[in-house]
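Our platform keeps sequence and structure together, in a single record for each protein. Such a record has a labelled line for the sequence and another for the backbone structure tokens. The tokens are whole numbers drawn from a learned vocabulary of local backbone shapes. The remainder of this section carries one protein's record, kept here as part of the documentation:
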Amino acid sequence: MILPIFAYGSKVLRKKADDVDPTYPELAALIENMWTTMYHAQGVGLAAPQVGHSIRLFIIDTIQLNKEEDETGGIKQVFINPEKVKENGEQWTYEEGCLSIPNIRGDVDRPERVILSYYDENFVQHTQEFENIEARVIQHEFDHLEGVLFTQHLKPVKRRLIKRKLENIRKGDVDVEYPMVFV
């Protein structure tokens, strides 16, 4: 089922998410619906707060990015109750966007590597290092669980330039191909 994505301005996007218990009601169905929603919206990552659930869960699929560039690799993975162990490497700039903030993109600096401790969809614990685009997508989605949006990482000049567009999104004055919930 395609879930509506909560738009910029929604309180759930600014709240620190709660840990997920293995007995969370219909967790498998939520994860499946998040995959369907993410692909329908042509995203590469989606956090539970973006679909109205303030829980520490996100999914990513970077395999599709590599297919676009005729490369192999990437990951398709579920992350439950993730914790950053360490971020390291050089800061690198990449243009990010967000399904909750449609039609706005901006350059964000992030470390090139992240070590994450997390549970998979079967509640098996992992600690793993990710780098490059996988690290970037993970850091972006992890931010959602902390109540942080990519726009908060933008340079002040860029934030001023997009202020009116953000207000339009908050009001629901935006054209998207997927269902959204507005303030």
